[in-house]
Amino acid sequence: MKERLEELKQEALEKVSKSENVQSLKDVRVEYLGKKGPITEVLRGMGKLSKEERPVIGQLANEVRESIAAAIDTKQTRLEDQELEKQLEAESIDVTLPGRPVRVGGPHLLTSIVEEIEDLFIGMGFEIKEGPEVETDYYNFEALNLPKGHPARDMQDSFYITEELLLRTHTSPVQARTMGQKNGNEPVKMICPGKVYRRDTDDATHSHQFTQLEGLLVDKHVRMSDLKGVLNAFAKQMFGAERDIRLRPSFFPFTEPSVEMDISCKVCEGKGCSVCKGTGWIEILGAGMVHPNVLEMAGYDPKEYSGFAFGMGPERIAMLKYGVDDIRNFYTNDIRFLEQYHKA
After folding, report:
1. Which amino acids does the record list as binding Mg(2+) (predicted)?
2. Confidence class of residue 217 from pLDDT cuts 50, 70 and 90?
3. Which residues are annotated as a binding site for Mg(2+)?
């Protein structure tokens, strides 16, 4: 048996030395050290040996197994190192090559406009407030002086989920919620930007989903002149110091009196052109003094408190400021359009 074990050892070591890859080494390991290998067969025949020979052959068999296993491990390590070296050579990076430029994205145009407006009003002491886009009928309509049956509540204008839940049609509910949290005895000075939803047919100037930004100031002794001063500061900072504004009488259920604000056309400088339809003025937003009913429903005493509110569409602001002629450009995500307004 000694001769057989020595013979198996030499055979195995020779095969290990000739192996050229890890898989062939695994085959050698299974062939000689596996449960069905020749060394195991030799050990099974030890029962025929004398008591004196058994420990000698057993020790020799273990030495042969350990020798073969060590040779396989050493050769496997060497082969794996060689394969890794070849892989590193194949995947090597030439650090002398010029770098590949990475295209950096930027804020969406609407995001930039909203942030610009936010910064402007924060500078005037306004807070930013947010609210849910799925709103209750009470906050979306009733708390804003829009009772049941009012034309503005028509199903053609609103996306109702249930009779009492809908996708908000404006950000005014955030104003109603904020006033309600003040318990009718604290001033409010806030703006609330966000998405709103209406059942509109999408075209160049309308969208079923768009952005709105509204402002509210409630305090004692608030006057229409305060509203005009805030809107004038907004227009000049947003569109240029040379812009003039005018307020025209209008109607909104939640303000009384209500006004529309126009700015002088920057294309023709007020002389009249196709952009302003020959009037020299462009409508920009709606505003007014908060209706006493709205104040009362929020817990304020309209004899003691007054306020003003305004609302604008950032899409319209962007279209006027940058000459965009189709509102759908903001939502189609065409990189050719968006990258024109990316500020590096």
Report:
1. 256
2. very high
3. 256
Cα–Cα distances in angstroms (integers) from residue 116 to residues 194, 213, 240, 265, in the given order = 14, 12, 14, 21
Domain 109-341 belongs in CATH node 1.10.10.10: no
Q: Are 217 and 189 in contact (CB under 8 A)?
A: yes
Per-residue DSSP letter, 126: P
- CA terminus-to-terminus distance, the chain: 83
Where exactly are the structural domains of the chain? 2-86, 109-341
**What pLDDT score was predicted for residue 344?**
45
User: Which amino acid is residue 90, in one-letter code?
Assistant: A
Residue 169's pLDDT band (boundaries 50, 70, 90)?
Answer: very high
Annotated binding site: 256
- 234: part of which helix (H) or strand (E)? helix 224-239
248 forms beta bridges with 260
Question: In this structure, what DSSP letter does residue 135 have?
Answer: E
Query: pTM for this structure?
Result: 0.67
* Residue matched to tokens 């908060």: 290
Tens-digit pLDDT profile for residues 173-189: 999 999 999 988 899 99
| Helix or strand (DSSP H, E) at 188 | strand 188-197
